[in-house]
Automatic annotation (TrEMBL):
<dbReference type="InterPro" id="IPR050902">
    <property type="entry name" value="ABC_Transporter_SBP"/>
</dbReference>
<dbReference type="InterPro" id="IPR002491">
    <property type="entry name" value="ABC_transptr_periplasmic_BD"/>
</dbReference>
<protein>
    <submittedName>
        <fullName>Hemin ABC transporter substrate-binding protein</fullName>
    </submittedName>
</protein>
<dbReference type="Pfam" id="PF01497">
    <property type="entry name" value="Peripla_BP_2"/>
</dbReference>
<feature type="domain" description="Fe/B12 periplasmic-binding">
    <location>
        <begin position="23"/>
        <end position="278"/>
    </location>
</feature>
Amino acid sequence: MLRRALLATPFLAAPAAAMTGARVVVAGGGVAEIICALGCRDALVGADSTCLFPSALTRLPQLGYLRALSAEGVLSLRPEILLLAHDAGPAPVVAQLAAAAGPRLRQVPRIENEESLSAAIAVVAEALNEQAAGTRLAGTIAEDFRALAAMRPAGPGPRVMLLLGGGNGAPMAAGARTAADAMFRLAGLRNAMTGYDNYRPVSAEAALAANPDWIVAPSHVLDNVGGADALLASPALAMLPAARAKRLYTADSAYMLGFGPRTAHAARDMATAIHTHPLPALPDRPWLHDS
């Protein structure tokens, strides 16, 4: 009965001229960072578990995991605007939310480069009635991407492999059509794992065949396995020259793979760590700080 009542409840109506004061619910870390960079963080009344930055978002009412949303959980927050990342799900729940929300639900397109990030900013800014702020934000981020392109080393870069998991089972390596693969391109690096999309378990044999110059892993992966040394000594990686030389790059997953306003800076930091010479710093921006 509760489920029927919630799904039958329409989204609250918000005046078009006052969208930034509306109740906003978000699923998707990169989308949440865009909302905050637009100056609309105070409008957020709920977020999913991938919304980790700024850290204040983790103290909002939680929706669970991005790809396992509950229509009842979302609607119980009485949202006036619902902004979802492209991979929010499951699909039947998104369809239920769309039926309840109508035009007040926006699913932001996949972000994997400067152009798609600019398009995502435009979608979010329009939903929040903050088009002028969106134009300014997109313009500033475009400046960062131009600076990154100018400083990025020319020619084929080092080959890298990004890993997730690595706990009880084999680690999962990022293939094509992943945020990791897109970040590698921005940093002037090459994905050592080719021939497949998304993530696949990687065996010691497959890792040796790929023979990456560097291993990349989000910091939470290291936390899960007991640190960098434990990851590099795992059966799938121990025989790799990169593992023996401790060529490992790690960063917070929201920063490294979130594809929000901090993307150019994250790519610059990855490139600086892995290429043979450091890159100049990009300009400081307000949305880089956890405040």
